[in-house]
Amino acid sequence: MVCGHSWATVRQPCIFALSSYRKTKRAMRKETRNRRSEFRKSTLKSSRLTEQVDDLRFQEFVLHIQSEICKEAEEMDGSGKAFGFDKWERSADDPNAGFGITRVMEGGNLIEKGASNVSIINSKLSPTRAKMMSSRGREVNPEGGDSYFAAAMSLVFHPQSPWVPTLRADVRLFQVGEQRWYGGGCDLTPSYLFEEDASSFHSFWKDLCSRHHKEYYPMFKTWCDDYFYLPSRKEHRGIGGIFFDDLAISPDGEDAEPFVKDVGRNILNSWREIAESRRELQFDDQQRNWQLLRRGRYVEFNLLYDRGVKFGLEGGRVESIMVSAPPLVRWSYDVNPAHNTEEARILEVLKHPRSWA
């Protein structure tokens, strides 16, 4: 009996309510995806340059934020460890082909491994990349050969503690001829769920997105959930955040660059308070083991599904591409956490993404 009623009597309306909720949620997500599709079509039409743009402007920006983020992360970490600085040329025979800067810190107090890449490219589209862009509506030669310029900064911070979520983020510019568009985002991959941390992180990005356009957060949150998904596991990589691509203008027709730069400047701010509040919590071997198992999913996604990794492996610098991998990972056969455990709780959220803000 439940409150004077049989369980069978109570159970039916509960099941109906849950079913209705899930149908409503699916309908809302479908509507958001439809709006995103229409928005992408409109921004594709508006991505042609209306004025001469200085490529160096965004290049200087990504170099600056990489330097600032690494400096702030070293201070947060507090171990005295520092990010290395490895500048490399894309081609020894062509000094105009571009360059990269890979910065890595390992064995810190907070950050077990942190890595950041800046990549500056002047090259020609390969047939594989050109076909991919053409299929997304870009006016490029699907056979490849078009000249392009790209500038990007990406990072991933793998924490020591299983209570602190992994942080991943990037901002990037891609230009082919007169077409120019941006991409980027920021997301969390926790081993354990703290609902208040998920709400704080999503609220941070919702507030920032809303300062630029009210459509941004719902579109980019859903996009993030959709992108960071492992169909082979039927689960999402983390609790999401924001993710966007092919962004040239806002829905109101405004240049997207100020928004993209705002994202880049605030990456660390979205994670700082969460990391500081959890880093000193004690953990045991079982919890550490779970963290290593979850890192395995992180690697699986990067190698099997991530577009950036696939693009980079087409003649890119493997050391800089694989630098995002965790320092330690574990795979064990057919791991299924017991019901009503904290491990089962995070898996439920990864299988069924929530609205956090």
Output the keywords.
single chain; 357 residues; alpha+beta; seven-stranded antiparallel beta sheet; two-stranded antiparallel sheet; 11 helices; 45% helix; globular; disordered N terminus
Structure in words:
The structure is a single chain. Helix 1 packs across helix 5. The N terminus is likely disordered. The protein contains eleven helices and nine strands. A hairpin with a 4-residue loop joins strand 7 and strand 8. It is α+β, with helices and mostly antiparallel strands and 357 residues long.
- Strand and helix order: HHEEEHEEEHHEEEHHHHHH
Estimate what percentage of residues fall within beta strands: 15-25%
Give the overall form.
Answer: globular
The helicity comes to: 40-55%
Low-confidence stretches: 1-22, 45-53
Broad structural category = alpha+beta
What is the count of helical runs? Answer: 11
Measured distance between first and last alpha carbons: 36 Å
